[in-house]
């Protein structure tokens, strides 16, 4: 069965610090990878996605993620976080079928 | 505006009282899905539908029912709610059923069963 692991449950950073959130998945075939963000009290919004091609994917709001196939990873990065990035971040995987498998989420708190 | 809507947004009910949470999308999407979100567990899929009259179980279907009589609507039915169904529920839709299609999420319904 597929699984998605997000090892950081809660990350606390000061503004301007760099961010990297880990995501690992278990599936050997072709995958499509997503990062979603959920701001407090809001629904999930797509940050970025990877389907094929360049493994370094750029998304909205300065976020990027790198797909490393050999490590089954799709880590999310941002060079300099802002207070407004405080949110919960979910990694998700889709593999051939229609259904998204989500990680358990990482809560990011950015201190001004 | 393209969107997924859910109603109600908040609901407090008692054990055993049947309820329905509606989901509607105005994007002519084929695929629709229900998730529940619980702390520490992320989002888990309850049911999904690949088109009208085509539904299937997700990872946690017990205690839920769905129907897809029209393309735009995908209600979630709890015939006899129990406290362990207290959760935050999200409906989502995507244009088609291929793996590369992005899912769009509704605003969520926070359900409390006492």
Describe it.
The complex is a heterodimer of chains A (about 110) and B (about 110). Chain A is mainly beta. In chain A, about 0% of the residues lie in helices and about 50% in strands. Chain A contains no helices and twelve strands. In chain A, the strands form three sheets. In chain A, strands 2, 5, 6, 10, 11 and 12 form a six-stranded mixed β-sheet that branches. In chain A, strands 3-9-8-7 form a four-stranded antiparallel β-sheet, with no helix packed on it. Chain A is globular, with a radius of gyration of 13 Å. The mean pLDDT of chain A is about 90. In chain B, about 0% of the residues lie in helices and about 50% in strands. Chain B is built from no helices and eleven strands. In chain B, strands 2, 4, 5, 6, 9, 10 and 11 form a seven-stranded mixed β-sheet that branches. A four-stranded antiparallel β-sheet of chain B has the order 1-3-8-7, with no helix packed on it. Classes of the chains: A mainly beta (about 110), B mainly beta (about 110). Chains A and B meet through strand 5 and strand 6 of A and strand 4, strand 5 and strand 9 of B.
Q: H/E series of chain A, N to C?
A: EEEEEEEEEEEE
Q: Give the N-terminus to C-terminus distance of chain B in angstroms.
A: 36 Å
Fraction of residues in β-strands of chain A: over 45%
> How much strand content do the residues of chain B show?
over 45%
N-C termini distance of chain A: 41 Å
Low-confidence stretches of chain A: none
Biggest sheet layout of chain B: 7 strands, mixed
| Classification by helices and strands of chain A | mainly beta
Count of runs of 4 or more consecutive helical residues of chain A: 0
- Identify the biggest protein-protein contact and residues per side: A-B, 26 and 25 residues
Q: Uncertain spans of chain B, ≥5 residues at pLDDT below 50? A: none
Radius of gyration of chain A: 13 Å
How would you describe the oligomerization state of the chains in this entry? heterodimer
As a whole number of angstroms, the C-alpha radius of gyration of chain B is 13 Å
- Tell the overall outline of chain B: globular
Mean pLDDT of chain B: 93
Strand count of chain A:
12
Given the structure, what is the number of helices of chain B?
0
Helical proportion of chain A, percent range? under 10%
